[in-house]
Amino acid sequence: MTTTADAVTCTQLAYAFGETKAVDGLDLTVREGEVFGLLGPNGAGKTTAIRCITTLLPVPSGMVRVFGHDAAGERMGVRRLLGYVPQQLSADANLTGRENVSLFARVFDVPRRERAARVSQALAAVDLTGAADRLAGTYSGGMVRRLELAQALVSAPRLLILDEPTIGLDPIARTSVWEHITAVRAATGMTVLVTTHYMDEADQYCDRVGLMHHGRVRALGTPAELRRGLGERRGAAATDPLPTLEDVFRDVAGSGLDDQSGDFRDVRSTRRTAQRVG
Ligand SMILES: Nc1ncnc2c1ncn2[C@@H]1O[C@H](COP(=O)(O)OP(=O)(O)O)[C@@H](O)[C@H]1O
Ligand SMILES: [Mg+2]
């Protein structure tokens, strides 16, 4: 059911690149205030779905609503509500951290009088105050990701969308990015929609997850519900360790997971993303 309290509703969303059905009948509801993880291997269709939700791609088939606004008919209305950190690099290496965030503040119409303060606040929220006046080109991968988070936060969005925020980062930087996302959510109550192919991270940090495979959500619930559900289907004893989210994914995706999870293009774009933050 769609209610105005839902942050995102996709109904039978479909998007194809030629013969490739990247998104293929996606049904998805993200509730206001939750951290929702859209999980799946490379090539599952996560980025394409996200780009439809952010209005960067059209909605050729099906429906997408963001806080009740139609992504097809009210693109500007939707864009004003969200902050977006794309999978690919969105910070400029030749600008300082502060200049990068200021640029987003201008683009997203943060009132001129408030801009300097809001930029400083966003940088502080991701622990970049000390590095704010250095060129972003000198930042580590984790710092670049946090800078991009600040860029998305400066407009105080109701919905923050992050596409693979931790891809290519070392474990410490990954934890730091997640801790900042969690802290910002706790402080502002904003809704977070995040994609990742790291199931362990989603298990730890997401309120609910949707497991996406071949363009569609195949299983939906809290990480604990999904893991317990698989344990029960397998007839595990109450004292057995719970299956992991990865086990759940293998169960819903079946045997097609290993040979069909992403083609060369996906591997290449993942690498490129990993390199640029490395
Ligand atoms: N610009 C594009 N042109 C052609 N095919 C694409 C393009 N972008 C994505 N695809 C294909 O669509 C499918 C879904 O890709 P994507 O949405 O990027 O998945 P994910 O983000 O889950 O890795 C893949 O098979 C991918 O190769
Ligand atoms: Mg992607």
From TrEMBL:
Residues 256-278 are annotated as: Disordered. It comes from the Bacteria. The keyword Transmembrane helix does not apply. Residues 8-239 form the ABC transporter domain. Keywords: ATP-binding, Nucleotide-binding. InterPro entries: AAA+_ATPase, ABC_transporter-like_ATP-bd, P-loop_NTPase. GO terms for molecular function: ATP binding; ATP hydrolysis activity. It holds the Pfam family ABC_tran. PANTHER family: LINEARMYCIN RESISTANCE ATP-BINDING PROTEIN LNRL. This is ABC transporter ATP-binding protein. It comes from Streptomyces aurantiogriseus.
